[in-house]
Every structure is written in structure tokens, then in C-alpha cells.
Amino acid sequence: MKRLTRPRGNRRHALLPVVALLAVTSASGAAHGSAVTKPFGVAGSAGAARAVPRSARVGALFSGDLEGGHFCTASVVRSGGRDLILTAAHCLSGDGDTDVVFAPGYRNGRAPYGLWRVTRTFVPGAWSDRSDEDSDFAFAVVASKDGQDLEDAVGANPLVPGRATGASSVVVTGYPNVRETPLSCTNRPTAQSRTQQRIDCPGFTDGTSGSPWVDEEGEVVGVLGGFEQGGSTDDVSYSAVLGSAAASLYRAATGGTGGTRASGSAGSP
After folding, report:
1. What is the pLDDT of residues 201-259, one digit of tens each?
2. Rg, the chain, Cα only
3. How many CB atoms lie within 10 A of CB 168?
4. By Cβ atoms counted within 10 A, which residue in 45, 76, 155, 168 is the most buried?
5. Contact, 56 vs 43, CB < 8 A?
6. Of 253, 262, 258, which Cα lies nearest the Cα of 124?
């Protein structure tokens, strides 16, 4: 289980499950979220060279502010509203008012691109109802800051459900609880089962749940979670295979075509 227990006294927004199953769709490729340069299966610090590096599309989740420490990882995915992040469903489970903030590009106690407040969450009904490991993915909408949307501030990678496991190598980037900088690893996923995929990457401790799996085309094709909520060891991590349920949830989070979000809650997929 690769998430941290959130500090006591903090409560989260009631989860909004999803409505209908939609067909799996494919998105066009974009710039890779993290360049595939490291040897396979070897983890190292994620780079930060340019003014707004692509690694800034990945960030840490906090409860309210930076003081309590980060408890999960999330990443910015393309949407019509330009305000959507992807993480593991078990990172957003809970009751009460939402107090989660996203710090893209977080490093060493600083949020160089600001803190972005979560205003709405989208979790599969199968996860909310029975903690189905094949549905351990979720989206959250964040509020704009100073008139700017999150995607305009740091960029985003397209989410592409339906990619075959191991079709290419992927870069996994996340925030282990023992580090204040992101860890990145490149390897080729393999099938754990028909609905789960795994990857061998060292050092992915608690806190890395929600880490995106970005393929060679810059597409998000997995999210760290699923089996054993991401894995019970630091060196092997998992993701649910993203298929029609993930496509449906994405459509619900963006309101369908054009990213216009529908109001109200949604039902189980």
C-alpha cells in the first residue's frame, strides 16, 4: 500500500462516483512527461532544468498546506477545462469537506508553481462500493489561481486508456515519503493479470500512489495503485489496466466533449 495516512483532524470531500460506461477512446501523442533516458529498472531523481520542466506535470498531494507532509502523488492530464489531475482512488477515499491541495513540481518544501485546491473528485463506483482494485484510479478538478488554469501553468499529458501492457517502456514518477524530491524510473510493464500490470522499479515507497505511467509518446497509460493498492514492497509497483471504466470516468470528469463539466454527482460505472 503506497500511500501515507493523512494527518489527524483533516477531512475530505464526499466522493462523487461515476455514471455510464463510455467507449474507450485514444488520444494523439504529445511530448513525453519525463524523458526516457535512464537505464531500465533504475530509479533516479526526476530532472528539473527548464523554466517549466515537463516533470512539473507531476506533483504531490497535501492536506491543506505543506506543513503536514505529502501523502500521495498526482499528475496533470489534458482536459477541456484545463484543470484536471489523475491519482489513485485510494488517495481520495474519505468523508467530509475536501482539503486536498496539489503541488505540481514540489521540491524540498517548496511549491514552485503554487498550491492548487481540489474542488471536486471523481472516483469509480466500483471503488467506492467495494474497493475494487481494478478501479483504483481517480480524477480531481482543481480551482484556477489568479485567473490561470493549472494546465496553462505547467502543461499536461494526454490520458490514453486501452494501450496494451508493455507496448512501450514507461516512465514512473512519484514522491516517496522518505524524499522531498520526486523519484523517476524507466522500465517496461508486464502483465500481472488481465486487469493488472506491474513494473519493477526500486525505491517506490509509501507516498508514490497515484504516480503516472507515461509511455514513449508522452501518454499516461497507467497510474500507480491497483493490486495491493500499488504494491506491498518498495521495488515492485502495480497499476490497474486502464480501459473502458477509466475512459468513462475521464469523460464524466470533463463533462464529455469539450471538457464542459456537468453539475451534480454521478452513479457507478
Report:
1. 999 999 999 999 999 999 999 999 998 987 888 899 999 999 999 999 999 999 874 33
2. 16
3. 15
4. 76
5. no
6. 253
